[in-house]
């Protein structure tokens, strides 16, 4: 691309670093911003800067939060002893949307994937095992997507916590293997949380 402006080129280069955004799309977005009132760009950059400087990770569940403890963990009406294990905040949002779950979450931050170089040590697994060890958790619900990485991660965690004799279950999804949790419809997802099946049974299938 031959730019008439170095400033334009810099902006396009930065925007095109985002996933799924090629140079052409980046140029379109930047030209769009140029046509808008300059305040709009200011709001956008302020929102992003504020996000990066002020956002926190909930010290209990590792969810993205504005406060030390997220609004779910700090809600006294939630059942602390039931913990739903998810990959990231999108899964928390999907399950919260169903309105069917009253426990807490534990956000792993990914799935075990040797191909992508993600091992158990790269995920929030130790803090989960510690919660089980300390006795504060009575039931773990696995709600990772049913991909090979999801299954591997579930099984790894299950092996770590098996000896503490707590209830382990997995959400019984009526959606096909490989579907991501965030795309499951709310009714199906809500039902699958209520009708969760013992984790041991899911291994026999
Ligand atoms: Zn939290």
UniProtKB/TrEMBL annotation:
Q: Which Gene3D superfamilies match?
A: 3.30.60.80, 3.40.1360.10, 6.10.250.240, RecR Domain 1
Q: Which UniProt keywords apply?
A: DNA damage, DNA recombination, DNA repair, Metal-binding, Zinc, Zinc-finger
Locate the coiled-coil region(s) and give their ranges.
none
Where does the Toprim domain start and stop, copy by copy?
81-176
Q: Which Pfam families match?
A: RecR_C, RecR_HhH, RecR_ZnF, Toprim_4
Q: Does the keyword Zinc-finger apply?
A: yes
Zinc fingers (C4-type), renumbered ranges: 58-73
Top-level taxon: Bacteria
GO terms under biological process: DNA recombination; DNA repair
Q: Which InterPro entries match?
A: DNA_Rcmb_RecR, Rcmb_RecR, Rcmb_RecR_Znf, TOPRIM_dom, TOPRIM_RecR
The UniProt GO MF terms for this protein read: DNA binding; zinc ion binding
Return the PANTHER family for the record: RECOMBINATION PROTEIN RECR
Family, according to the entry, reads as follows:
Belongs to the RecR family.
Quote the function comment for this protein.
May play a role in DNA repair. It seems to be involved in an RecBC-independent recombinational process of DNA repair. It may act with RecF and RecO.
Cite the NCBIfam families for this sequence.
recR
Q: What is this protein called?
A: Recombination protein RecR
Q: Which gene encodes it?
A: recR
